[in-house]
Amino acid sequence: MARLKTWISAFRLRTLPLSISGAVVGSSYAYFSGFFDILIFIFIILTTLSFQILSNLANDYGDGIKGTDNNSRIGPERALQSGAISPKQMKNAVIINAILSAILALLLTYMAFGVSQLFNSLIFIVLGAISIYAAITYTVGKSAYGYRALGDLMVFLFFGWLSVMGTYFLFAKDLDSMLLIPATAIGCLSAAVLNLNNMRDLETDLKSNKITLAGYLGMKSSKIYHFALILSAIVLMLIFQFSISYSKIMYLSWIAFLPLLFHLKAVFFIKNPKDFDPHLKRVALSTFVLALLFAVALIIENLHS
Question: What is this structure's pTM?
C-alpha cells in the first residue's frame, strides 16, 4: 500500500486538472459549434492525462538524477529525492508510460479520422510523437529545455494552443481562428503555474545550474511577468466570450476570475519563496474551474439557441 501511495504521489495528481483545461475548452466549443463525439472526448481526456503523468514522471527522473531535487528544495519531496523509488524503476515507469501514451494517441487518432483521412492522421501522429518527446525532454537529457528557460514557452504552446486547437480539430476536422483567443488565455494561465513553481525554486534552481525564465528575469521581473500572464488571460477570455455571445449565461465563468485576482494581490506581497507553493494549486484549480464554467455556459447557450 505504501508503494502504491509513492507512485500515486509521483503522478502529481494536483497537476492533472490543469492539463485537461485546454481540452475542456476545445471540446465545449466543438459542442457549441455542433461537433461533438463522447467517445473521442473520453480518449482526448485519457490521452492528455497520460501525457501529463509521463511529463511528471520524467521530470522526477530528470531532476532527480541531475541532483536538482535535493534537500534544499522547497516544494514537495519527489520520489527519487526521497529514495522511495530508484532511478532504474523511475526510468522504466517513464518508458512504460511513454508506450501507453503512444497507444492512446494512436487510438484517438484512429477514432477521429479513421483510415480515410490519412493526411490528418499523419499530422496528429507526428504531434503525438512530439508531445511525448517534449514531455520527456523537459528535464531529461543534456539538452533538456527546462534547463534553458524554454519551459514557459513549451507549456504555453502545448497546454494552450495545441490543447485547445488540437482538441477542436479532432471533433470538427477543421480549425476556427477564434479559438486562438481562449487557447492563448489557457496557455497564459498554464505558464503562470510554471512561473510560480520557478519563482518558488528560483534560488535552488540557480545553484543546480537550472536556468528557468524566472531565474533569468529575477524575482521582481518574474512577478511583473506573472501579473501580465494572469491579467492577459482574463482579458482574452472576456474578449472571446463577448465575441461569440452576449447572453448573461456567459457571466457564469467570471466566478473563476475572483480567486485569480485575489491570488495576484497575495503574490505581490510574497517575500518568502515557500509562500508561492500553495498558489500553484490555486491557479491550477482556478484555470480548471474557469474551463468547466466556460464549458457549462457554452452548453447552456447552445441548448437555448
Answer: 0.94
